[in-house]
UniProtKB/TrEMBL annotation:
Keywords: FAD, Flavoprotein, Oxidoreductase, Pyridine nucleotide biosynthesis
Spans annotated as Disordered: 494-529
Positions of the FAD-dependent oxidoreductase 2 FAD-binding domain: 7-382
GO biological process assignments: 'de novo' NAD+ biosynthetic process from L-aspartate
Needed co-factor(s): FAD
EC id: 1.4.3.16
Native source species: Halomonas chromatireducens
Pathway: Cofactor biosynthesis; NAD(+) biosynthesis; iminoaspartate from L-aspartate (oxidase route): step 1/1
One Pfam family this sequence matches: Succ_DH_flav_C
Cellular component annotations (GO), alphabetically ordered: cytoplasm
Catalytic activity: L-aspartate + O2 = iminosuccinate + H2O2
Protein name from the UniProt record: L-aspartate oxidase
Cell membrane recorded as keyword: no
Subcellular locations according to the entry: Cytoplasm
Length: 529
C-alpha cells in the first residue's frame, strides 16, 4: 500500500478545517483532505451568522449567561467563557480576510455591521452576510487557502480510518483515492474537522450531511466521545417532500417571524415567554407536539407582516430559493418541520482541540468542547469553529514530534461491495434513528433501536470483513456504530434534559453529568449479547 509522509494532516475542509489550515501554515506544513465539492460541508449551508459580542451595548457576561441557559446545565463554563471572550478577535480576523459581512445602513448605529438576534440570545449579536453567511465565509477562507504556499489540498482522497503506532498515538489516516486505491498518509499531527452526525437521520437540514465518520474513526483509536445523545433538530426546515433539504434560518424568527399551527394560530407564546425565540430544543418539541396534535405534516412560519421590502433585504437567499419552489413568502407563510441539524456531542477535547489520543485533535462539529452542553444556542457553531481552530493552531505551532511508523498495514477482504445493498442498509439505519431516537424518545423505542441496530451491525460487519475498500461501505460502518453508541448514551441518561427528552423519565437530574463513551464499551456489549 502506498505511503507518504506529512507534517500536519487536516481531514475536513469546512470553516473549522480551513481556519486551522490558514493559522497552522505559518509554522507547519499542512495537508488538507477535503471533498472535491465543498457543498458537502455543512458550513456552506449555515445561513444565520456568527454570534459574538460586538456591539458596545452587549457584553461577555450576557453572552455567557445566554449560552449556559440554552445548554440546560451541561455546559462547561470554562469552555463557554473561553469561546465567548475569543469571539471578537475571530471576527476581526475574518474581516481582515475580506468576508463581506452585511453593513448596518443606519448611520447612528454603534457598530458598523448589522447584528441580528436569534433564539436564546438576549441581545442582537449575530453578525452575518445577508442570509448566506456560511457560503460567504467559506468562499473567503477557500480563496486564501488556495493562495497559501504551505497548504496542499487533496480533494482526490476520502479518509476511511486513522493510523496508530505501537504507543497508541495517532500517526495519520488511511484514505481511498477516487479510483479506489488505498493509500496511507503518515502525519506528525492529525486533526479531524469532519462535521457532525445529522446524517444518521432520514430528514436533515443539509443535502449531504456527515454521519459521524470522523467521530467513530477517533473512537477506533480509543478516543473518548461525549454527549452523543444530544442531537439538535433545527425547528424550521422547509417542508417539501419532493425537494432537497433547505434550512429556514433562525434569523427569520429573530426578525419577527411567527410560528402558526394548522388553524393559523400562534402556539409558542402560550408555551414559553420567549415565544418563537426560545432555545431550539423547546421550539422543536413544541412544533413536533403541534404536528402530532393536529395530524398536520408541518406548521407554518409567517413573515408576511414584515413586508416585502424587509423580506427581500434581510433574506434574499431564502426568498429566492422559496420562490424557485413556488412559494412567494411575502404573500404566503412557509411550511416548516424540524429536521436533524447539529450534533452537540462528539470527540471529547480540551481547549486546544486535543483528544484523549496523543497527536489526534478534533475541531468544529466533530468535537465536543463543552460549549454547547445539552443544546446548542443559535450561531454559536461557527463561532466555535473559528475559536477552537485558532487555539488548536497555536498548540500545533510547537515543535512536532519525530514520526514513528504506524502498525502493520491493513489487509482488507477481496469481495466486491454491493453498493445497492449499502444504500438500503443506510436507509434502514436512518429510519430506525428517525422513528426511535429523534426529538422525543421512549424507553421501549430505545430498546428496540438498540436491538435493530445490533442486528443490522452484524450484517454490515460481515461485508466489511470480506470486501475490498469502499468509501460508501466505510462510511456506513462508521455511522452504524456511532448510531449504536448514541442509542446507548440515550438509554443511560435517566432524565430529560435539553435535546434529550424521554417522557418515561421526564424530570431533570439534580446533578447532571456529561456522558462519556468508548467504542470498547459497545464492543463488549456485543460480546455479552
Amino acid at each position: 500500500m502506498p505511503r507518504s509522509e506529512h507534517d500536519v494532516l487536516i481531514v475536513g475542509g469546512g470553516v473549522a478545517g480551513l481556519t486551522l489550515a490558514l493559522h497552522a501554515a505559518g509554522s507547519r506544513r499542512v495537508t488538507l483532505v477535503r471533498p472535491a465539492s465543498d457543498d458537502q460541508s455543512a458550513s456552506r449551508w449555515a445561513q444565520g451568522g456568527i454570534a459574538a459580542v460586538l456591539s458596545p451595548q452587549d457584553d461577555f457576561s450576557a453572552h455567557i449567561a445566554d449560552t449556559l441557559v440554552a445548554g440546560a446545565g451541561l455546559c462547561d463554563e470554562g469552555a463557554v467563557r473561553f469561546t465567548v471572550e475569543q469571539g471578537p478577535s475571530a471576527i476581526e480576523w475574518l474581516l481582515s480576510l475580506g468576508v463581506p459581512f452585511t453593513r448596518d445602513p443606519d448611520p447612528a448605529s454603534l457598530y458598523p455591521y448589522h447584528l441580528t438576534r436569534e433564539g436564546g440570545h438576549g441581545a442582537r449579536r449575530i453578525i452575518h452576510a445577508e442570509d448566506a453567511t456560511g457560503r460567504a465565509v467559506l468562499d473567503t477562507l477557500m480563496a486564501n487557502t488556495l493562495a497559501h504556499p504551505d497548504i496542499t489540498i487533496r480533494d482526490d482522497l476520502t479518509a476511511i480510518g486513522l493510523l496508530a503506532d505501537s504507543r497508541g498515538q495517532c500517526r495519520g489516516a488511511r484514505c481511498l483515492a477516487s479510483h479506489g486505491e488505498a493509500t496511507e498518509l503518515l502525519a506528525a499531527d492529525t486533526i479531524l474537522a469532519t462535521g457532525g452526525a445529522s446524517g444518521l437521520y432520514r430528514h436533515t437540514t443539509s443535502p449531504n450531511p456527515a454521519s459521524g465518520e470522523g467521530m467513530l474513526m477517533a473512537a477506533e483509536l480509543g478516543a473518548e466521545l461525549m454527549n452523543l445523545e444530544f442531537q439538535q433538530f433545527h425547528p424550521t426546515c422547509l417542508y417539501d417532500p419532493e425537494g432537497s433539504p433547505f434550512l429556514i434560518s433562525e434569523a427569520v424568527r429573530g426578525e419577527g417571524g411567527h410560528l402558526l399551527n394548522a388553524q393559523g394560530e400562534r402556539f409558542m407564546p402560550a408555551l414559553d415567554p420567549r415565544a418563537e425565540l426560545a432555545p431550539r430544543d423547546i421550539v422543536a418539541r413544541a412544533i413536533d407536539a403541534e404536528m402530532q396534535r393536529t395530524g398536520s405534516p408541518h406548521v407554518w412560519l409567517d413573515i408576511r407582516h414584515l413586508g416585502e421590502h424587509a423580506i427581500r433585504h434581510h433574506f434574499p437567499t431564502i426568498h429566492s430559493h422559496c420562490l424557485g419552489r413556488g412559494l412567494d413568502i411575502p404573500q404566503q407563510p412557509i411550511p416548516v418541520v424540524p429536521a436533524a441539524h447539529y450534533s452537540c456531542g462528539g470527540i471529547a477535547t480540551n481547549l486546544d482541540g486535543a483528544s484523549t489520543v496523543p497527536h489526534l485533535y478534533a475541531i468544529g462539529e466533530a468535537a465536543c468542547t463543552g460549549l454547547h452542553g445539552a443544546n446548542r444556542m443559535a450561531s454559536n457553531s461557527l463561532l466555535e469553529c473559528l475559536v477552537f481552530a485558532r487555539s488548536c493552531a497555536a498548540c500545533l505551532a510547537e515543535t512536532p514530534p519525530p514520526l514513528e511508523a504506524p502498525l502493520a498495514e491493513w489487509q482488507p477482504g477481496r469481495q466486491t461491495v454491493d453498493l445497492e445493498q449499502v444504500r438500503r442498509w443506510r436507509l434502514t439505519m436512518r429510519d430506525i434513528m428517525t422513528h426511535r431516537v429523534a426529538i422525543v424518545r421512549r424507553d421501549q423505542g430505545l430498546e428496540a433501536a438498540a436491538h435493530e441496530l445490533g442486528e443490522l451491525s452484524a450484517e454490515v460487519g460481515k461485508m466489511v470483513a470480506e470486501s475490498v475498500p469502499s468509501a460508501p461501505l466505510a462510511s456506513l460502518w462508521h455511522a452504524l456504530r456511532l448510531a449504536r453508541m448514541s442509542v446507548n448514551a440515550a438509554r443511560n441518561r435517566r432524565e430529560s434534559r435539553g435535546l434529550h427528552f424521554n417522557p418515561d423519565c421526564p424530570q431533570p437530574a439534580r446533578h447532571p453529568r456529561p456522558s462519556r463513551l468508548h467504542l470498547s464499551d459497545l464492543e463488549q456489549a456485543g460480546k455479552d449479547r
